Request: fold
Amino acid sequence: MANAVASSSRDRTAQPRTSLHSLHSVHQYNPNQAVVMTDEIIRRRPASGLYIKIVNQYGFKVKVGKGQHGEVFLAENVHHPGSAMAVKAVRRKNKSDRLRKLRRNDNIPRQPHLPLVDQLGSTEHKIRKEIAIMKKLNHPHVVRLLEVIDDPLNDKIYMVMEYLGGGEIKWRTASDNPLLRVDQTRRICRDVILGLEYLHYQGIIHRDIKPANLLWTADRRTVKISDFGVSTFSYAQRLAAAGKGNIKHDDTDPILMDESDLSKTAGTPMFLAPEIIADASESAYHLPLPFLPHPHRSSSSQSQTQTQVQMNASNKTPTPTQGTGTAVQVGAQTPRKKPPITKAIDIWAFGVTLYGLLFGTLPFHAGTEFEIYKVIRTQDWDVPAVMGLDRIPTGGRHPEFAAAAAAKKNGPAGRKAVLETDGAQVMDLLERLLEKNAARRITLERVKRHPWILRDLEKPEEWLRETQLTQYIPLEPTHDETSSAMSAVRFRWLPRIGNRILSTLRSVKPQRSFRRGRPRDDRDEQDEVGVRSAPHYVHVVRQQPASATIASGAATIGSPRQLGSVRERKRRSRQDLARNKSTNDIGSKPVDGSWASSPGAGSSKGKSVDTSLRIPSQSSRITSPAPSPSVGPSSMATSPVGEHPPSDHLPDGASPRSDRPQSMVMQWVRKLGGSSRMSSYSNYPSLMTESAVNLALSGRLQYRDGDGRMHPVAATSPPSRDSADAMSGHATSRQSSMSMSIGGKLSKAMRAASWTAPDFAQARPSEDMTSLYSGDRPEDLDEEVLMYGAGGVAGSPVPSVPNSALLSTVSSMHSIGPALVVRPRMDEQHPEASDHVNHCHSHSHSHSHSRSRAGISPSSRSRTTSPLAKVTYRTREESPSSGSDDDDSDENSYDSADDGSSILDHQTRGRTMLVNQDPGDAHSFEGQPSTSQMYHDEDEDSDSEEAVPLEVRTRRPSQSAADMTSPRRSLSASAHPAAQAGKQRTMICT
Ligand SMILES: Nc1ncnc2c1ncn2[C@@H]1O[C@H](COP(=O)(O)OP(=O)(O)OP(=O)(O)O)[C@@H](O)[C@H]1O
Reply:
């Protein structure tokens, strides 16, 4: 079977792309191909100009895009020249970093009582959620996540994805004319429908469907859905889609099960469904209390504070005068229950997208963010007389009128003829997609069968059959397979693994903030957050020989709390590395046979036990061997963490670098399982402790195969592979990966531990496996389509159309609705704070005035998304306080909306984009911490990314009006005088 699957994979890549025969290969697409999780970053300095930088096995070639939280690079696996993948480098940001920065500037009172857990930032949570979602997804029309490189010691997380060389769908000219022919649009739609159908089946609501999130493969034959930054997992939807009892185990992933963001509004204004907008515009007045840190405020007064939102009923603009217009008192006790966000919002967004592709413009128009919401909610849409680049007549918004007229003239045949035109069919589909009542909106299932979607398909029934969703139902382990494996290795506690790890990590938190030789202070504590957060240095190796020992390597480094600063840590790491080299380190060069000779080892003989465990002193995550020519396909299923190229694979001059401390191993082991019990591992698997499986879960439990190679035993991360192998087509089967020289029981154990185990049969270039999936593709798209710039606008690398920010993603519910003025009731107690608020009001109203004063053209260098928003670009030299934070001032920074920052400092290649209400106040934001200021990479190579010119696609952040509703937002806003002067709702768009 393994061979069959593997050969089918080969056949698939050999299939001509223009044949429907290739559809058969799609059937065999295996969704169980796992995402590789790597928890160590090793950087190498590229000697030649081939790469910007090298992170693990990935050589970064060029920056291809920039999102809200990160940058996307085209990368190549240094093992496989010519391979291509997209690596999204995302900074982890968290509140603690912001607080640290603010405290450093003495802008806010210290709050040492803040629990550490509360300081973990939402941005990282969001990234992790995006990763968790993407990990679930494996479909030809969904961008595939291949590997996550998440080193807790690094401030960036790297998401390695398949590379979509065609970029975003460009759909309009600068004059708002369509770029795509109608039949091209239809093909795109088929792709999107299939991808969306799969997402919904998996319980994922994408929430940001729009052309910019639909990426072409390099050959422009396939479109895939990308960007899950605001996506949501709905367990209820998953249940409904799959039926009870058919839920994959990983659906219980806590980060997925957190559905709190279902109540938040996110997406792109122009594409938001009416139900979201109605919800947001109503509930926007029921905002949670802003956190207003004031030295004299007691916690009780905070909880009782009410916020008033002043709205002028006629024009919906905020008024500074309390008591006029429609005043809504907002209290924590009156949150309005929001209607659930359902997958219908994706259908609506798909309808808007379809309209855009057909007409080069969008169905609803308005000049401002709030206006567009009103228009979407209340107004109907109309259509031009023709659609598509080929200008096919639409027949008008209501083809039924023409059909009735034709029926009068020519009878039923005449009517039929009218209704079967391209225009009439697409009108009918749009009508159903853009149904304002979500309950009545067409379902994807019916969209898929709509005549316009099936139109021009040679064999529509075959297409429907071939693309049935059931083919993507994830493989579940059989009962036998599961139960036998579980009994052998005691994997019954799998559902509790996450909790155990969490509790383990919690228990070590206090150690993280220890600084040797220095008294602790808040700053130290903040420095440690999110850095040394996991026991990385445990390396447990299973061996075939009977003897088993646990050995610790040279204990020269100590526990994390003894590590001191990063520099100190690195220095010690290098020393340790050198020492280990000279003493024939067992971690990096495992030898066959017993580990009894290892320092500190004990031994235990067991009856024909085929495993042993050890803890080497070398960093465990890089010890898996690189693939050798003699390694067969199955051995390609080694851990990706072992795929870091040996130095002789690297470009000239490149040298591996690991800055890991090595030997806090035993402490972690004791924490995980207790050293006294470690000898019991010799009886593995029957006596394997949960601690050992915890190690397995974290990828550090390894076994030695018959050839002496090391492989990780993974619990949630399966015996994994180099994602590059996926891209280069190295294929093995699940069966082969499960039978790797360990023997039946362990294989089953591994199988049980790897429910999401990869099927390496699917390892192949994604574009091959997705070709023609959505139907006939007799020809390529026009060449000129390939030339267009970002934002879906032809000939414009940066969108220049007005209101382009309304086409950008918003990930904060508070950007929805009219610009709000939130007035805290603190004027009696703290008149100075009240002044700030009033000052804010006046700024709001003087917005247009100050704009004209500054001579800022609304259409050139500013992107206005709400009446209170403005983006101003200034050169770095113009910025009075630029460079005030020398540690990271040269970083390319951009703020995120979700974390509530009012920091809008965007520096791009020497230019600083300051966002403020008044240009005169722009400099004052410089004093606030920006993303980059707080999250600079500890690695000295990190800046190399920033020097890379943005060559292909740029999506700039823009902002809109103020929001003081988020505790963190108002924290920073209130803390900084300038922020108080210009507190505006923040909306980051990309
Ligand atoms: N897999 C990929 N292959 C090729 N290009 C990609 C890929 N993923 C993203 N890009 C490009 O990088 C740009 C930024 O991507 P990203 O998804 O991070 O931005 P974004 O949509 O603004 O995301 P977010 O909202 O999470 O910040 C995209 O517009 C796209 O052009």
Remarks:
- The CA atoms of residues 280 and 816 lie 6 Å apart.
- The pocket of adenosine-5'-triphosphate is lined by residues 64-70, 72, 86, 88, 143, 161-164, 167-168, 212-213, 215, 226-227, 229, 809, 953, 955, 990 (CB under 6 Å).
- The longest strand covers residues 58-66.
